Amino acid sequence: MNITSEICSQHYNTEAFYMENDQIVVLLNMSTSFADLNDSSLKRILPEVQNALNTYLKLSISIMVSSESMN
């Protein structure tokens, strides 16, 4: 969780939470719109997180990106 937070917090406001079954959720507060993700640093950061977790902790990671809810 610390590795992920360190990498992501360099670019975004970041909160990380431990969940059940050894799961972690990381929330990023992004100032860009969801449509701008193709050009954002997010595409560079997420592979960096995956590589760091694999290298240092021998863990695989699944990543999901979604827009904010309007409800």
Question: What order do the helices and strands come in, and which of them pair?
Answer:
Blueprint: H1 2-9, E1 13-18, E2 24-29, H2 42-57
Antiparallel strand pairs: 1-2
Description of the molecule:
The protein is of the alpha+beta class. Helices cover 34% and strands 17% of the residues. It has two helices and two strands. The protein has helices spanning 2-9, 42-57, and strands at 13-18, 24-29. Strands 1-2 form a two-stranded antiparallel sheet. The longest helix is centred in the C-terminal third of the chain and has 16 residues, at 42-57. It is globular, with a radius of gyration of 13 Å. The model has no long low-confidence stretch (mean pLDDT 80).
